[in-house]
Amino acid sequence: xxxxxxxxxxxxxSVGGKEIPVTIVTGFLGSGKTTLLNRILTESHGKKIAVVLxxxxxxxxxxxxxxxxxxxxxxxxNNGCLCCTVRGDLSRAARxxxxxxxxxxxxxxxxxxxxxxxxVAQTFFMDEDLQQHYFLDAIVTVVDSFHIEKNLKTVKExxxxxxxxxxxxxxxxxxxxxxxxxxxxxxxxGINGVSKLFRTTECSxxxxxxxxxxxxxxxxxxxxxxxxxxxxHEHSHDDEIQSIYIEEKRPLNLEKLTAFMALLVNELGEQxxxxxxxxxxQDNPYRLVFQGVHMIIGSSPDRxxxxxxxxxxxxxxxxxxxxxxxxxxxxxxxxxx
Length: 337
Known about the structure:
The chain is α/β, with parallel strands linked by helices and 337 residues long. The protein has helices at residues 33-42, 62-65, 87-99, 117-125, 128-131, 148-154, 156-163, 178-191, 218-224, 254-268, 324-332; strands spanning 20-26, 49-54, 73-77, 106-110, 134-144, 167-171, 196-199, 241-248, 272-279, 286-293, 296-304, 313-320. The protein folds into two domains: 15-229, Rossmann fold; 241-332, Hypothetical Protein Yjia, Chain: A,domain 2 (2-Layer Sandwich), CATH 3.30.1220. α6 (148-154) packs across α7.
């Protein structure tokens, strides 16, 4: 499924006649990839950005959480991992952007938190047609410094994402004591000792540190791992991890919702790896956005609901052995009287 926002060319030059840099933004669930993407889209850098989003599950809620403006093109790919089941869709999306009347000079791909970035990168240096129009600028991995030790122990893709990075954005450093942060950085350097590394809070760093940096060097990669030039076939994910989407069109009572989320954290605990959503709260003209990583959950006001926009609550939970019925019933109990 694609959501597309088109922008007419400002001149007669075909975008297919340019070589367009590609930045792949990866990182485990809840590390801050969408936060970084929003910074890229909102800061003043003079670039026209096209974005491809991918998420686990049938509904991509990230398209609701990403800042959209008339200067960006957004394509959404759902229900699969960008590194395997929808890789063909990625190639088609990149080609569609070239064919469409969209003025852009940089492509940013945000992968699902479970993606191995290696085969995503292969799309752009093993497809001869795409090679004529695109080149890989950098692979940027966002790391949750607070949860990274736990993620490395339980999810293989976390190590793959760090190991393949040209740039590592060590995020959420405000949540980690200095001595612990030094240990985390040492751990990361044990996996990848050559990438640039930036410590950040809320992915706050100059966009010039991640865009247009020419950091990806295929020849250097081949020296380290000759297998990178072989067609990627084998790839597996933790089949226990699932994505559950629930929706409620009736307005919610905020106190009930707060109690429900507290109960959820207490009862399901480590089963929930990631949660996020847009909330429709009674008598509130603003959307509320909530974000959760493991057992840490928070919310903040977003934009006002637009006139004529359907006000509804949309929530996504990603984790292991999650009880869909319990989650749906719990949300229904939060409906305002």
